[in-house]
Amino acid sequence: MVRVRVVRHSGLRRRALRRRALWSGGEVLVTVGVVLLLLVVHQVWWTNREARAGAEREVRALERAWDGEGDGDGDSRTAVAAPTPSPTSTPAYNGPPGQSAGNPRRSAAPAPEPDWSRAYAILTIPRLHLRVPVAEGVSKSRVLNKGYVGHYPGTQQPGQAGNFALAGHRNTHGEPFRYINRLAPEDTVQVETRSATYTYAVDKTLPQTTAHDGSVLRPVPRSTVRPGHGYTDPGYYLTLTTCTPEYTSKYRLVVWAKLVSMRPR
After folding, report:
1. Catalytically active residues, by annotation
2. Is residue 15 domain-resident?
3. How many domains does the chain have?
4. Which of 83, 122, 180, 206 could form a Cys-Cys staple with 229, CB 3.0–4.6 A?
C-alpha cells in the first residue's frame, strides 16, 4: 500500500511568508547600508573636497587683494585685517629679536577690527604643506565647515602680546588640523596679514585635555586640567586647537608656538 504524503497548505503559506519577510528584511538592510555608505562618503570625502576648494579660492582672493592694494586695485577685502595692539594691556616683551620692548605697536600695523566669518589672514604650516585662510570666530557653519581656521574671539591677534588662538577641524570639512599632532619643536608656523607676516616656532604640545579647558586660551596659556602643560610668563604665543582622538570631539589637542619674527609686507 502506497502512502501519500499530505502537505498542509497552511504550512506552505507560513514558509512563503517567512521567505518573503527575510527577503524584505534583506532589502531594507541593503538600502540602509547604501544610505549610510553615501553619508560616510559625503561626510569624509565630499565635504573635504568642497571645503578645500573653497579655502584655496579664499587664499587666492586674499593674495590678490593684498597684492593689488599697493597700486590701488585692491577690493573690499583689504579692509579686513587684524586690529592694532593695545599698549595698555601689553605684558612683558618676549617677542621677535630686534624689536623694541618699549614700542609694542611695531608688532602689528594699524587696521580695523576683522568682520565675523570673513577671512583676514592666511595660516601656513610648511611641515604639513598647509595653507588656509583664517577667519574671525569659531562658528562651524560660518567658519570651520568652510575649511577655514577660526580665531577665538577675545584672544589676541597676530603679532600681539598675549595669545593668538585658533581652532580647526581635524576630520571632515577640509580637516586643516588633521596632522598638527605631527608638529615638533622648532617647526615654523606663519601667519600672513595685509600688513605683515608673523613667524612662530612650535614649542610645546598638549596631547589631550578636556573640551572645557579654556585656560589654554588665556593670554598666558596654561592647562588647569593637565598641570604642568603651558606657560607661566607673558609672551607672544600662538595656540592651535583641534579635536582628539580622530573622528571624535571628546577631547582637545593643543599645540603652542612662540613668535620669533615679523616681516612687513
Report:
1. 169, 243
2. no
3. 1
4. 206
CATH number of the domain that 94 lies in? 2.40.260.10
Bridge partners (DSSP) of residue 110 are: none
Mean pLDDT, to the nearest integer, of 239-244?
97
Q: CA–CA separation, 28 vs 130, rounded Å? A: 43
State residue 36's pLDDT score.
Answer: 55
The closest alpha carbon to 191, from 142, 130, 145, belongs to 130
**Domain-embedded: residue 106:** yes
The 10s digit of each residue's pLDDT in 101-124 is 333 344 444 344 555 568 999 999
Single pTM value for the model = 0.73
Residue type for position 199: T
* Owning domain of residue 178: 47-264
Question: Which stretch of 40-44, 45-49, 212-216 has the lowest confidence by average pLDDT?
Answer: 40-44
CA distance 251 to 255: 14
Question: 3-state secondary structure string, the chain?
Answer: CCCCCCCCHHHHHHHHHHHHHHHHHHHHHHHHHHHHHHHHHHHHHHHHHHHHHHHHHHHHHHHHHHHHHCCCCCCHHHHCCCCCCCHHHCCCCCCCCCCCCCCHHHHCCCCCCCCECCEEEEEEEHHHCEEEEEEECCCCCCCHHHCCEEECCCCCCCCCCEEEEEECCCCCCCCCCCCHHHCCCCCEEEEECCCEEEEEEEEEEEEEEECCCHHHHCCCCECCCCCCCECCCCCEEEEEEEEECCCCCCEEEEEEEEEEEEEEC
Within a domain: 9: no
Within a domain: 228: yes
Beta bridge partners of 255: 205, 240
Cell numbers placing 116: 565675523
CA–CA separation, 131 and 149 (whole Å): 10
Q: Quote the cell numbers at residue 142.
A: 560660518
